[in-house]
Amino acid sequence: MDTRTRVDLIIDGGTILTMDEADRVIEHGAVAVLGDSILAVGPSADIHASYVSETVLDARRKAVMPGLVDTYGHAGHGLVKGIYHPSRPWPSGKLYWHATDEAWWYAEGLLSNLERLRFGVTCGLTVVGATPARMDSPVFAQRQAEAVEQVGIRGVIGVGPPDPYVSHLEEPWSGTIWDGERSERRTFTHRDAVANSVEVIEQWHGGAQGRVQVALHFPYLFGRQAAHPRIPFVYSDDCVPTMIETAEEMRDLSKRHDVLLHTHAFRGSLRYGLEKFGPTRVYALLGPDVALAHCNGLAEDEIRVLGETGASICVVPFTHENILYGPCPVIELLEAGANVTITTDGTTTYSSYDLFPEISRTMWTQWNRFTDQNVLPAGKALRMVTIDAARALRLDHLIGSLEEGKRADVILIDLDQPHLTPQTLLPYQLALYANGHDVDTVIVDGKILKQNGRVTAVDEAEIIDMAQTQAARAFERMDVSEYLHMSREFWRGTRY
Question: CATH number of the domain at 68-392, please?
Fold first, then answer.
C-alpha cells in the first residue's frame, strides 16, 4: 500500500533557486504542489519518498524559481509601442484620455498581461494610464482588472487622482467617453477621481480569488522637483499647503483601505518635502507600505530618510531619467535600509515587460557608478525581482520564494540553449544571460498557464488580433503620423 501523500503536481529534477531566507539552491530538486500552494520543496528523492502525483513536470536541465515580480508599469503603453520622437511630447496622455474606450483598455490589459506571462512575470503592478491614472471613470481600471483575471497571473492595479500641479492634463481636467463612434468630453475633479479610485479599491482589492490587488497611486507625493524639459512647472510656497493636504489625504486613504501607496520620486523630491513639509510629516507619509518609482539622482539626506522609513524603491535601469538626473543610487539605498526592487516601467517607449534584461542593466549601471564589479552581486539582483519585489507589493507572505505554505507561483527556465550552456554558476547566468524567451513553463496558484514554451491559459492569437483592432481604432481617432515619420536623417543622420 502506497502511504505517500497524494498531491496535484510535482515539479521534478530541476535546479531550484528557492529565494528563501537560507538562500537554498537545490540540485536535482523537486516541488510538491497541492491546490494553489506549495506543500514541500527539497531534493527529488525526498519529495518522491513522501509525495505522489499523476501530474509530474520534468524539470531536468531547467532552472526552477519563483515567478518574477514587476513592481511598476503603466497600463496603456502596450498599445502605443514604437510611437515616440525624442524632441516631441509623447502622445500617450492625449491619446489615453481622448481616443480610447473601455474595450481598448481591456485589450491592452490582455496583451500586456500575456506579455508578462510569456516572460515569466507572474505578478505585476500596473498604473492605469500614464503618470496620472485615467480615473475620470472607474471603468478603465475595472477592465484592466478583468484582463488580469482572464490571463491568470497576479496583478496590482494602481488607481488615484492626477497631481494638482503637474497633472499632465489640460485645465480643466477632462476625459472623452466613447459610445461606438459617438463621443462626449466630460470634465472631472480631484474629488471625482478619488471617488472613482475608492470604488475600484472596494470592488477589486482581493478579487479574482486574491490574484488582483489594488494600490493607491499618486504621481508625486512630494512634488516633481527635478527639472524636465517638457515639465517646466516651478513650485512656489503658495503650493505647499495644497501639496501637504493632498499628500496626507492619499496617505490616509491608503491606510484606511489597507492598500499600498505607490508614487514617483526624483532628485530633490524628498529634500523638498523635508524642507517644506517638515521631517515629522515626511516620516509619517513614508513607511514599508510605500513604494517610490525611479528615485534617480537622490542626495544623501534623501537616501537616509528612505532607508530609515523602510520604504521600497522601484528602480528603472532603462529610462531617460538616467540621462536627466543620473541613475538611482541603488547601493546606497540598500545600505541605508531601503527595500530596493528592479522593474520595467512598462512597455514603452523603449522597453518591454521582459524583466530579465533589467537585472543585468541594473547591475551594470551600479558597476559603472562605482567602477567596481563587486557591487550588487547576481544573487541579490535576482532577489530584487522575486522576494524583495514581493515585499514591496506587500505580498511576500504569499509569493516571491519557493517555500512550504506559499502560493505555487513557479517558473521553469530552459537551460538547454547555447547562451546558457554550460551550466556553471547558475544565479550569475540567469542574471546576466537569460531573457524572457527562455521561460519554458509558468505556474500561478498551482495552475499551469504556459508549458513547453506555449501559453495554455488564453488564446494568444485572439488577444493579438483584438489588440491590433483596438490600437487601429484609437489611431483613427487621433493622428499619430508625426511620430512615425522616417526622414532621411532618421536613416542617415546622427540626430533627428
Answer: 3.20.20.140
* Domain regions of the chain by residue span: 5-66+401-455, 68-392
Is the predicted pLDDT of residue 323 greater than 90, yes or no? no
Q: For 361-402, what is each residue's pLDDT tens digit?
A: 999 999 999 999 999 999 999 999 999 999 999 999 999 999
Residue with cell 533557486: 17
Inter-residue contact 118 to 413 (CB < 8 Å) = no
Taking the whole predicted model, whether its pTM rises above 0.85 is answered as: yes
Residue in the structure block whose three cell numbers are 482572464: 150
Q: How far apart are CA 261 and CA 291, in angstroms?
A: 6
Three-state DSSP at 350 gives: coil
**Which stretches of 257-354 are DSSP H helices?**
269-272, 279-285, 300-309, 321-325, 330-336
Question: 3-class DSSP state for residue 222?
Answer: coil
How far apart are alpha carbons 35 and 457 in whole angstroms? 17
- Identify the CA nearest to 328 among candidates 351, 375, 362, 367: 362
C-alpha 10 chain-centroid distance: 29
Q: What one-letter code names the amino acid at 167?
A: S
397: its cell numbers: 507572505
Domain 5-66+401-455 sits in CATH at 2.30.40.10
Is it the case that residue 1 has pLDDT exceeding 80? Answer: no
User: Does an H or E element contain 116, and which?
Assistant: helix 102-118
**How far are the Cα atoms of 18, 182, 311, 329, 419 from residue 336, in angstroms, in the given order?**
26, 54, 11, 11, 36
Rounded CA-CA distance 61/58 in Å is 9
Angle between the N-to-C axes of helices 460-477 and 102-118, in degrees from 0 to 180, rounded to the nearest 10? 140
| pLDDT > 90? residue 37 | yes
Q: What average pLDDT score do residues 421-434 get? A: 97
Q: Which residues, listed in sequence order, are joined to residue 341 by a DSSP beta bridge?
A: 314
In the DSSP assignment, the letter for residue 400 is S
